[in-house]
Design brief:
With about 325 residues, the chain is α/β, with parallel strands linked by helices. The protein has helices spanning about 5-10, 30-40, 75-85, 150, 165-175, 195-205, 300-319; strands at about 20-25, 45-50, 90-95, 95-100, 105-110, 115-120, 125-130, 145, 160-165, 180-185, 210, 215-220, 225-230, 235-240, 245-250, 250-255, 285. The structure holds flavin-adenine dinucleotide. Flavin-adenine dinucleotide binds near residues 56, 258 and 297.
């Protein structure tokens, strides 16, 4: 009897906190690896701290995803992927992973419980980088947002700000003009870091006003955001600026606080692995945006997830 068949037999009598494979994160990488692992007959648990779909929910329109020549919104694609995930009847928990230990097996400690498995895939992606403006935390959910597709609808016919100079910021500003009366784009940089195509879309959009070389210092309001204190970095003058929300797109950071100490990472904290998605700890795999990789896209996250699940299956069949 091979090891996998043995472990499958043990599942019949296993404790409810024991699995072949635990996947941390329910974004595209985590969901793809869960579906693949289930198809390989592994006993899988997915742990997601917030919403299944992850950053997919933050994408207005995806224009380079195979099979959708007319583009598809991140939300629509996530609905399809989550339906597929649900149809596989995979175990999942809405909990936050706080710590990951390895002794003989892995122990995954969440804010509510702890679970054990022989293999783990970390697919925890990225978190949004903060602007570090005064009031940012206070007004989160009351006019401070990191997700235009999720929150644009609450600011119909209002004047809002977008902070950032990257493609994600500009695409979000353009999306917001479908709802808002005016969108002001602020960046501390003196240039926009975007493609020529996007530059012409931006130029053609009369609802967007651009402020280069400006820093948002403070977010002010009462129940919700009402105005901002902004510094013109050219002359260092501060001024008040009225708008009812701010959408922040100033980059992302890896979600890695729970990973075992000593794992090799990039300078910014993205996890190193080999081409099978295996880290230096046997049985520990990574997939998606948390991985130290050059391209971070939905398609690469899904590919990583499938490779990681197949590698975990291979590892489990030998241990
Ligand atoms: C604004 C924006 C626009 C984008 N536009 C595009 C685009 O046009 N095209 C494209 O291909 N890609 C785009 N991307 C990138 C794409 O969203 C990511 O590459 C993809 O979502 C990565 O998937 P992932 O599963 O690795 O990580 P994520 O989508 O980040 O998912 C990680 C999941 O893990 C969960 N998690 C994190 N920590 C824990 C923990 N401790 N415990 C439990 N759960 C945890 C999170 O809640 C999240 O659901 C965009 C991203 C952003 C932010």
């Amino acid at each position: 009897m091979d090891t996998l068949t043995q472990s499958r037999r043990q599942i019949a009598t296993k404790k409810s906190d024991q699995f072949d494979l635990i996947i941390i994160g329910g974004g595209p990488a985590g969901l793809a690896s869960a579906i693949k692992a289930k198809q390989l007959n592994l006993d899988v648990l997915v742990i997601e701290k917030a919403l299944f779909g992850g950053n997919l929910l933050n994408i207005a329109m995806i224009n380079d995803y195979l099979g959708f020549p007319d583009q598809i919104s991140g939300k629509e694609l996530s609905v399809k992927i989550i339906e597929q995930f649900k149809s596989e009847k995979i175990d999942f928990k809405y909990e936050e992973v706080m710590q990951l230990n390895k002794d003989k097996s892995f122990e995954v400690i969440t804010d509510k419980a702890s679970y054990h498995s022989k293999a783990v895939i970390i697919a925890s992606g990225t978190q949004n980088r903060k602007l570090s403006a005064v009031g940012e935390e206070k007004y989160y959910g009351r006019g401070v947002s990191y997700c235009a597709p999720c929150d644009a609808v609450f600011f119909k016919d209002k004047h809002v700000i977008v902070a950032g100079n990257n493609e994600r910021a500009i695409k979000s500003a353009i999306l917001l003009t479908n709802y808002c009366q005016k969108v002001s784009l602020f960046t501390v940089k003196t240039y926009l870091n975007i493609s020529e195509d996007l530059k012409s879309d931006l130029k053609a959009n009369k609802k967007i006003e651009i402020f280069l070389n400006h820093r948002i210092e403070e977010i002010l309001g009462n129940e919700s955001v009402e105005k901002f204190i902004i510094k013109n970095l050219e002359n260092n003058k501060l001024f008040y600026y009225q708008a009812e929300a701010i959408f922040i797109y100033v980059g992302v950071l890896p979600e890695n606080f729970f990973v075992p100490k000593g794992l090799s990472t990039s300078e910014k904290g993205y996890l190193d692995c080999d081409k099978e998605m295996q880290t230096a700890i046997p049985g520990l795999f990574v997939a998606g945006d948390i991985r130290n990789s050059f391209i971070k896209k939905v398609s690469t996250a899904i590919a990583d997830g499938i490779i990681a699940a197949s590698s975990a299956y291979h590892y489990l069949s030998l241990h």
